[in-house]
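Summary for the steering committee. The consortium agreed at its last meeting that each partner would contribute one worked example illustrating the joint modelling workflow. Our contribution is presented below. We chose a case with several input lines so that the handling of multiple components could be demonstrated. No manual editing was applied between input and output; the record is shown as generated.
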Amino acid sequence: MERCRLVFSGSGGQGIITAAVILAEAAVLHEDLIAVQSQAYGPEARGGASRSDVIIADSEIRFPKVTQPNVLVCLTQEAYNKFYSIIRPGGLLLTDTRYVRTWDKVDARQREVPMFQTVMDRIGNPVVLNILMLGVLIRLTEIVRPESIMKVLETRIPPDFLEMNRKALYLGTELGSSFIS
Amino acid sequence: MSKNVKFIQGNEVCVEAALYAGLDFFAGYPITPSTEIAEHMSLRLPQTGGKFLQMEDEIASICAIVGASLTGHKVMTATSGPGFSLMQEGLGYAIMTEIPCVIVNVQRGGPSTGLPTGPSQGDVYQARWGVHGDHAIIALTASNHQDIFSITVDAFNMAETYRTPVILLFDEVVGHMRERLVVPEPEEIPLVERLRTSVKAGVDYHPYLPREDGRLPMSDFGGVHRYNVTGLFHDMWGFPSNNSGVTHGLLRHLVDKIKNNVEVITRFKEYYLEDAECILISYGSSARSALHVMENRRSRGDRIGLLELQSLWPFPYELVRKKCANAKHIVVVEMNMGQVIRAVKRAVDHPDRVVLANRIDGFFINPTDIKNILRLIQGKGV
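What follows is the complete predicted structure of the assembly.
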């Protein structure tokens, strides 16, 4: 496989870092891949744009940070403004239609997906926005299978909330299907 | 997939390894970027029948573990630079009284409260000479989760073998990042258990009388023997002494027990050193960037290699001298103003061939930082 370098960005509380950890953990524990996850711990993580880096590969990863992601997720305008310029030309840039207005000049496959709207319309609880986003992301990148994400969620999410997370994940993969081109 | 595979932070790996090594007492005061060690330990120790104590500060933390060790437990504390400064007095006491313990310093930028969330490797010499007075110390480090696990177990084993504090010098990058760990099976890594005295209750026990092999069997304090423990120079009974022979003998013993075992204690990894014209020397998270650069340059045909040090103290002077004997350039990669490079320069035959690739702004040293230095050496400019 080609080495996949991802940057997840948004604001504190959106579950950006949790989503990054779940994806990387799914890759390692259930896809037999190598992955490294790191995150911003500085003042920027305590307000403002938060960020988590994930590298997924089938060979050893030495340098654990991402300088030029081929997949960039921005869940706020502030995060988009701050990070859009680091994307690898031609990479995948996933944003939410409600929170981010994108610019045409960016050399990337920009996918503006109504993730927040879908989660509110179909589930009614924004807490699983990050899981829905993961669903969209793995549908567009095919980097791990949804079953692998589910296996991680089963170990992390209290039983009462598991069904809501499952619904969000598969809503995401469904939604992602209509943005493949 | 095996149950033994985990995807966790480096700090959590350190906890799992300590438990594997037999740790059953931890006292600490949380501080970024080591906090997850205390946090995870507070969850895991009660599950394994051990005791976790959150102390009022770092001075109390080290004193608590030293006391607990003396009563027969395997112990550890974890901190970062500011806390490590406060621990120096207790550390010196553990050195002088020869009480096994493990102290983790997940380094951050300093001096003082410095850069709480920024990576640094600025405490290398503090680990060596933070304690006043002549002494020897063991300090170990690692750059990835599998190695953090094995080196942490090594730390506990060495603490018991040499009856000494052992310092684990990690850093913010390896402490916080998550990657795969395959937890070794029980007994896969041999463990060194406490050497206890065979002297029976009611018979005089000399706490500081070495056996023929030089080792000092211990008696759990508060158990069947009464004896004295002091940070003053002491005789074989553990009582204070300023006798010239006693003082001379004890200090020489404290230094020699580690100095004479440099080769046994030394831990390192090497990559492509056989034909390397340019050798990178690094340790901890910096070694990941160095390895990245080395693999990148090797694939282009450059004769470059990497020596990754996992034991910093006692410094493996002879190893470094031998490995670097044929190198035209030696580049030390570290996140400080030049600490391990001092030891490397002392070790090699041609100190003028040693240069520094560093980063000190609270950001992780990246491959470009190192490549720029390599370009300079080659006369290409950055």
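The domain at 267-377 of chain B is CATH 3.40.50.920 (Rossmann fold). Chain B has 14 helices and 15 strands.
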